[in-house]
Amino acid sequence: MRKIKQLKIILPLALCFVLSACGGIRGKGTDAKNSSQTEEALKQAGLKEEKISAFFSAVDEYNNAVGKDHLVQKMTTVKGTVSDADNDKLIDLWVQNGGFVGRNCRITSFSLMGDFISIKDTTPGDTTMLFSDFDAIKAKQIFEGEAKKKYDALFSYIDVKNTHDTKELAKEITASWDKRGVSFQNNKMHMISVFMTMDDGKNKVQEFIGHTGILLSEGKNYLFIEKLAFELPYQVEEFHNLQEVNDYLMRCYDKDADGLTAKPIIFEDNHVMNEYRVVKQ
């Protein structure tokens, strides 16, 4: 069963909650216990205190903009994702409060995981579609210097063959990262990435990280921290096993019912998640 909290959180077959620095989370569950649980898991993973503080400050910035009435106030067991109606309300509130420059999934994951990622060749690939990321990063000077170079290299789009064979695409993604020398050095915290296909029918087909979050061990279970979008909440989900993590993400992001592009591919750090599989919608 998945549980969710907001930070914000609600997952299929999991427990979910929304986060806040002082114990508030959107979804169906936010309290001091849940936030401290997440904070303690980050500490156990070796994250520096200043990084944890900066993360929760960003969470509170978003939560204060949309108001706690629209965020989950305690951990809640759910089946499925947060409704579009809920998302519409949150987007409206975010816009009404100035549509401030915020953070998305990639910025959030790198903020937490960046110190544990090494890249030998930080020469960026195609970053044309990351303009919104760059605007947000520049506005608040979130990453600078070598950290920004590493960000650009990590999230560059990867040229691939025009195929729907996910095994072949995964090999090309892995080969590209191996060539750059991308490696991850934390066995208690992992970056989970959803690679998606960019194919406009005119240019080279590419794979890119369309969504990403941070996975932490929590006793016998797992916590998954994610920022759904610039205008949508932070969310923490608790899963019993990694198969539930994969299935949740595939249900969320495998949306091409017509099969026009390849299926999403789930990576754990720099390799395909062992539990990766396509699930029926």
Structure description:
The protein has 281 residues and is α+β, with helices and mostly antiparallel strands. Helix content is 36%, strand content 24%. It has 8 helices and 12 strands. The strands form 2 sheets. Strands 1, 2, 3, 5, 7, 8, 9, 10, 11 and 12 form a 10-stranded antiparallel sheet that branches. The protein has a two-stranded antiparallel ribbon with strand order 4-6. About 7% of the residues have low confidence.
List keywords for this structure.
8 helices, alpha+beta, ten-stranded antiparallel beta sheet, two-stranded antiparallel sheet, 12 strands
In a few lines, what is going on in this structure?
With 281 residues, the protein is an alpha+beta fold. The chain has helices spanning 32-44, 49-66, 84-96, 105-113, 131-140, 145-155, 166-180, 242-253, and strands spanning 2-6, 14-18, 76-78, 117-119, 158-159, 182-184, 189-198, 206-218, 221-229, 232-239, 265-268, 271-272.
Helix proportion range: 25-40%
Shape: globular
How many whole angstroms does the radius of gyration measure?
18 Å
Put simply, the count of helices is 8
Structural class: alpha+beta
Distance between the termini: 17 Å
Major sheet details: 10 strands, antiparallel
Give the H and E element order. EEHHEHHEHHEHEEEEEHEE
Strand elements, count: 12
